[in-house]
Amino acid sequence: MELVDEQGHPIGSCTVSEAHTAPGHLHRAFSVLLYDDEGRVLLQQRASVKTRFPLRWSNACCGHPAPGQSVAAAAAVRLAEELGVEADPADLTEVGVYRYRAEDPATGRVESEWDHVLIGRFEGVPPQPDPGEIDGHAWVRPQALTEALAAAPADYTPWLAGVLAAAEQGRASGLAPIVSD
């Protein structure tokens, strides 16, 4: 995976395991939020076998582009791998970057990410969720999700609130999701 400096510039690479071992290394990542026609967002519950924040609810998918790989291309691959959702990278709109650091108390692993937030459109039920990645999914209205995050933050990944805020700000400023079927 691609390591970055505090401004998001590439400075090297390392394995996923190295990047997420304490104290952690700042690296490029992405988070995708998918919206439906009603303005709801698709959440996934992370699988119990995940090495970071298992069984917590999160955005549609997350991942790490390879060094030099387009963030949107990497995100489209992960959507297909995790949910079975086919998306053209051109149908994913980057709406900002959310920089965060979080330690998982259950596993001792660390997230230190320069997280590109992308939004897209999807309707229905994920056709082929990978059980090694996802235990469940749900459609939720953004306002209800914001309230749930405040009421029970331990039920959600620590990046979800920031990712949702970036996505909603992007949508409010006219960066509406593009249809991807």
TrEMBL record:
Protein source organism: Nocardia terpenica
Subcellular location: Cytoplasm
Function in brief: Catalyzes the 1,3-allylic rearrangement of the homoallylic substrate isopentenyl (IPP) to its highly electrophilic allylic isomer, dimethylallyl diphosphate (DMAPP).
Reactions accelerated catalytically: isopentenyl diphosphate = dimethylallyl diphosphate
Protein name from the UniProt record: Isopentenyl-diphosphate Delta-isomerase
Family: Belongs to the IPP isomerase type 1 family.
Cofactor: Mg(2+); Mn(2+)
Matching InterPro entries: Idi_bact, IsopentenylPP_isomerase_typ1, NUDIX_hydrolase-like_dom_sf, NUDIX_hydrolase_dom
Pathway(s) this gene product operates in, as recorded in its UniProt entry: Isoprenoid biosynthesis; dimethylallyl diphosphate biosynthesis; dimethylallyl diphosphate from isopentenyl diphosphate: step 1/1
Enzyme class: isomerase
Keywords on record: Cytoplasm, Isomerase, Isoprene biosynthesis, Magnesium, Manganese, Metal-binding
UniProt remark on cofactor binding: Binds 1 Mg(2+) ion per subunit. The magnesium ion binds only when substrate is bound.
GO cellular component: cytoplasm
Documented EC number(s): 5.3.3.2
Main location, first listed in the record: cytoplasm
